Amino acid sequence: MNLYNNDISDPKAKAFFEEAFKLCKNSKESDVKKFIENNRLASSPEEHVKAGFYSLAVAKFNKEIDKEESGKYFHYAGHILKITNYINQAARAYANAGSVLKDCQDSKNIELAVRSFAQSKNCYFDIGNSELSEKMYIEEQETKIKLLTSKKVSCFSLKIWKLSSIFGTSFQRWYCIVLLFILLFSFLYEYLYRYKYIIINGQSKWHNIISPVYFSIVTISTLGYGDIFPIRWEAQLVIIFNIFIGYLLLGLGIGIITRKIKGH
């Protein structure tokens, strides 16, 4: 995701950007940075906006030269532009900050990338772009994994969340995981039936070929009709694990629905 000057529709803002970029190319980057530093909290709206687009210019100028510097100024730009109600530009600036900084090795920069993606997500949500907001949310979570890994902190739960539902955003992934576990436990129950670890209404014979799938669904959904039950501790352990997985999948499903309802 890149921000070029032709993405700036406001003529005055575009002029600020081009002016600053030209100064940077003419070895006057320090003057541009000095202006930004002096006007980041300017009381004059025009000077404040100018500082925001100057920050964008510095960020773009440094993108291939100094990623850390580029990311920092993209983040500055996002902050200033958000305050000055250039929300769309702020969202893109934050997104650029995240995409640049997440590739750094320093955990401090990766942490700033996480915050940048989070801000971009919120900005896109504020302007009603739920698709890009969700994309930034996924980038935020992906970068969190990288941050935790760089700090040598366990991120197992985040990785499982990603695997099972792409951080609570994908029903399709969730459906596939549910189906996978239903089939897995169906095979296990077929095995347990063959060795008479479970019985059906006092018998040890399936009613039909669907029975193991039926029992897997009933157990994973925690309904438990009681028509099929274990008679050995090994089978009991499998069923306990099946129920545990069922609760986890139910929680994931509710989480996805909640995100869809909130639209965030």
Automatic annotation (TrEMBL):
User: Does Transit peptide appear among the keywords?
Assistant: no
What is the protein name stated in its UniProt record? Answer: Ion transport 2 domain protein
Q: Where are the transmembrane segments?
A: 172-192, 213-231, 237-258
Q: Determine the domain of life of the protein's source.
A: Bacteria
What single Pfam family name could you report for this chain, choosing any that match? Ion_trans_2
> Domain named Potassium channel: which ranges?
177-261
The answer on whether this UniProt entry bears the keyword Membrane reads: yes
What UniProt keywords are attached to this protein's entry? Membrane, Transmembrane, Transmembrane helix
Native organism taxonomy: Bacteria, Pseudomonadati, Thermodesulfobacteriota, Desulfobaccia, Desulfobaccales
